[in-house]
Amino acid sequence: MNCSYINNLLRIALCSLLLLVPCSLPAMDADYCLMCHGDADIVSGPLLIEGSTFDTTAHAMLGCSTCHDAIGDEHPNGDSELSRATCLDCHDHLGQEYMMTDHANYATCGDCHNPHEVRAMDAMAGYDMNDKCFKCHEAPAMVDLHNEWLPQANLHIAKLPCITCHTGSEGYEIVLNIAAKQDDRFLSRYELPGYQTLQEISGKAGILSLIDTDGDNFITLRELKGFNRNPEYRDLRLAGTMVPSDVSHDLSTLDNRYDCTFCHVSGPESLQTSFLAIPNRDGGYQRIPVEQGAVLEALYGTPDFYMVGTTRSASMNIIGLIIICGGLVMPFGHGLLRFLTRKNRQH
Q1: CB of 249 closer than 8 Å to CB of 167
Q2: Pair 267, 296: CB distance under 8 Å
Q3: Backbone angles phi, psi at 225, to 5 degrees
Q4: Which of 216, 238, 292, 343 has the fewest CB neighbours in a 10 Å radius?
Q5: What does the pLDDT read at residue 68?
Q6: Helices within 38-63 (DSSP H only)
Q7: How far lies 347's CA from each of 41, 309, 337, 343, 344, in Å?
């Protein structure tokens, strides 16, 4: 093997190494910082960061130094204050929307979003979204306020994140979660279990196997029906929320949100798209697409997401018609029989 060939191989290896280094820098950067900032014996309060949570955030790929670019080699010695980028440096469009709202007078980005914990919308359960709002707007007070004009306000607030109605988002989708019964009582509450609980139920096959029986990462109506009718899962059921499909910080309530037909009509477009949110080990969620129109199959698809006026069942319509007709047969039939036999009864 001649020297020129070896030199070429070395050049190729060196170039490959240089290409890989930038991709690994953010991870190396975060790991280095978390040696101190992930240790409760060294730092506390807002300086303490949960590494496993940060690794799953939308900011993890950027690395620490992208936002904290003024931290010197002598850190923490000689630093008068923590340097950090502002949210608007990257999220200018969302910032412009937010600054036009009344919320901007009372809360900054950091009051609602911890940059070391923030996740993308598709990595959250619909139920978690209201936690941000409830920091200031307590849930009982909001239920009482909405009860002044909204029927069954408690159900609406439970199934609809605040941002479903109180933002300018136009697109919507249904996010389904696996809920578990809390105890053996007949009317026991169902709540969202964590990763570990569902993992123990599903075993080695994984949580998704509870519903996705063929393992193709797509949930069909047949699989939903099988899950709902499986006696082994009698303490589990699907709970759904209607969430925006796009992020908006325009916190205005559009007029059509006060119109019941926005949701409660037969087969609205927003109910055609749905996802199953499966909890991950890190506390986030993975969304799996579900066959179109799943939530419109109230009996077989999502029995815990029955939206009056939309989740109509053809079978129930037929059964209801039979019941009505059966109820009318007796009085009309009896009256007709008496009319036809009226001459005989005259004697």
Answers
A1: yes
A2: yes
A3: -65, -40
A4: 343
A5: 85
A6: 51-54
A7: 105, 55, 17, 8, 6
- Burial class of residue 307, CB neighbours in 10 A (0-12, 13-18, 19+): buried
Which residue is it, tokens 């927003």?
Answer: 270
pLDDT in tens, 221-278: 899 989 988 999 988 988 888 888 888 888 888 888 888 888 887 666 777 888 999 9
Instruction: Please tell me the predicted confidence (pLDDT) of residue 307.
Output: 73
- The DSSP H or E segment spanning 6 is helix 3-37
Task: Quote the pTM value.
Answer: 0.74
What pLDDT sits at residue 27? 55
Q: Which long-range contacts (CB under 8 A, 24 or more apart) does 311-319 make?
A: 312/266
Q: How many CB atoms lie within 10 A of CB 39?
A: 13
**Quick one: tokens of 225?**
């029906």
How many Å from the N-terminal Cα to the C-terminal Cα in the chain? 126
At residue 216, the pLDDT reads: 95
Sign for the pseudo-dihedral over CA of 215, 219, 220, 221 = positive
* 3-class secondary structure per residue, 126-171: HHHHHHHHCCCCCHHHHHHHHHCCCCCHHHHHHHCCHHHHCCCCCC
Cβ-in-10-Å burial (0-12, 13-18, 19+) of 235 comes to: middle
**Burial (0-12, 13-18, 19+ Cβ within 10 Å), 238:** buried
DSSP secondary structure letter of residue 346 = T
